[in-house]
């Protein structure tokens, strides 16, 4: 939680507090989005919540406590569902509080004559809400992966690969594949969802992107529930 807060708030100050509007080229001014710029720290924040999600389940396997937990709650899919519900509620609440705090801080440190954003402007409230929901969905994906992999390092490594490595793998494959496949990557979905001024080219709409992320979380949790039910603790 502390890493998430530090990443969001700290990079918001760096990104917007040191912006030199007068020296920016006209093309950059036209595409400037104070909302997206203010959430520059979300890349760090999503990883922090991903690690948290993995730890919620993998620490029990590494410590051996999972046997006692499963003895108390023999219905294994129900156990994972309960853990996911608590994790989702906590990370969503924390994410939204920090998202609105980051937005307010970013607009406070942004100096005129750079354009400011308000929650009443089109797309701004949606972007701020998504900034809080996105890392919570990453945490749910991570707990599902953790239930499948059962090792902390392996689960965290899988989260890192999904978030950061997969987009890099697409780079040598050509523009066509990047545009068609890349739009389904979580990072690209987040980037477009946080943009209130100029949509990112070749990307899903904010609503479709949110649906895809929810689908990823559902698949990860289903795989985790299956692994818990089918394999010995």
How would you summarize the topology of this molecule?
Blueprint: H1 2-17, H2 26-31, H3 34-38, H4 42-63, H5 65-72, H6 76-109, H7 124-149, H8 152-170, H9 175-182, H10 186-193, H11 206-230
Helix pairs in contact: 1-4, 1-6, 4-5, 4-6, 4-7, 4-8, 6-7, 6-11, 7-8, 7-11, 10-11
Explain how this protein is built:
This protein is mainly α. 76% of the residues lie in helices and 0% in strands. The protein has helices at residues 2-17, 26-31, 34-38, 42-63, 65-72, 76-109, 124-149, 152-170, 175-182, 186-193, 206-230. The chain is elongated. The model has no long low-confidence stretch (mean pLDDT 84).
Descriptive terms for the model:
single chain, 233 residues, mainly alpha, 11 helices, 76% helix
- The N- to C-terminal Cα distance equals 29 Å
Shape: elongated
Quantity of strands, as a count:
0
Structural class estimated from helices and strands: mainly alpha
Radius of gyration: 19 Å
Number of helices: 11
Biggest sheet statistics: none
In the predicted model, the low-confidence regions spanning at least 5 consecutive residues are none
Residue fraction in strands: under 5%
Looking at the chains present, what oligomeric state does this protein adopt? single chain
Helix content: over 70%
Rounded average pLDDT: 84
Element-level helix/strand string: HHHHHHHHHHH
């Amino acid at each position: 939680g502390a890493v998430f807060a530090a990443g969001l708030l700290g990079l918001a100050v760096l990104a917007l507090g040191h912006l030199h509007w007068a020296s920016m080229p006209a093309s950059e001014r036209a595409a400037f989005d104070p909302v997206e710029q203010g959430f520059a720290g979300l890349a760090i924040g999503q990883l922090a919540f991903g690690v948290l999600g993995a730890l919620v389940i993998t620490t029990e396997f590494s410590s051996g406590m999972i046997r006692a937990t499963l003895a108390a709650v023999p219905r294994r899919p129900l156990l994972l569902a309960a853990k996911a519900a608590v994790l989702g509620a906590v990370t969503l609440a924390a994410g939204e509080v920090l998202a609105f705090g980051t937005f307010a801080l970013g607009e406070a440190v942004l100096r005129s004559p750079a354009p400011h954003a308000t929650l009443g402007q089109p797309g701004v409230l949606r972007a701020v809400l998504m900034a809080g929901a996105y890392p919570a969905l990453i945490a749910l994906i991570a707990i599902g992966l953790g239930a499948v992999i059962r090792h902390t390092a392996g689960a965290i490594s899988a989260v890192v690969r999904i978030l950061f490595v997969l987009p890099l793998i697409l780079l040598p494959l050509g523009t066509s594949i990047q545009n068609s496949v890349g739009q389904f990557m979580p990072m690209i979905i987040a980037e477009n969802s946080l943009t209130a001024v100029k949509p990112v080219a070749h990307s899903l709409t904010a609503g479709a992107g949110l649906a895809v992320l929810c689908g990823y979380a559902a698949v990860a949790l289903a795989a985790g529930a299956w692994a818990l039910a089918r394999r010995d603790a």
